[in-house]
Structure formats: C-alpha cells, structure tokens
Amino acid sequence: MALYDAQSALDALPEPPEGAPAPAPASLDGQMQWRELCTSIARAADEEKAMLLEELSSVRAELERETATQTHVDREAQEAEINLNRERAAAEHWRAQHERETEAHDSVQV
To answer: Which pTM value belongs to this model?
Structure first.
C-alpha cells in the first residue's frame, strides 16, 4: 500500500512549466535517483509493516492462548473451592453428629 502511495505521489510531481528549459541530463539522473530512493524507502516501510503485523498477529495468538489457559485454571480453582466447601460441610456435619452421640452416650452412662 505504501509503495503504491509513494509511487503515485512521485508520478503526481508537477511537470516543469512549458517554456522552461529542458532539465540537464545530470538533473534527470538526480531525479531518477530520487525516485529510486523514494521507492526503496516505501518498500522498506512495507516490509517493516508486514513484520510488525506478523508480530502483532503472533502476540494476539499468544494472548488468546494465555486467556484460554487462565479461563481453564479459573474454572478448576472454582471447582476445587466448591469441592472444599462441600467437604468442609460434610466434616462439620459428622463432627456435630459425633458430638451429639458422645453427649448422648455420656448422659446414658451417668
């Protein structure tokens, strides 16, 4: 895209006014060198843009992988917390049951 834009900008350079002396051959060489330089800069910018877009794509893919991993870890942590709470409730139930039976047993023995 930038290469095309640079080339069309170069093509749009105004022509020398009519009646102006023809440019000297050295001037034509300088103009061609200038055009080649501009084209070279535009190509380099396009290549750099392509590399940056590729790197951006890679970073996005890595971010998506990390997000998916984090979601999975969060889900596992939530399930572990649910199981922990369930086990605590069961342990509390059996502790209370044990205390009631111990009290009942102690009151019968007295």
So the answer is: 0.51
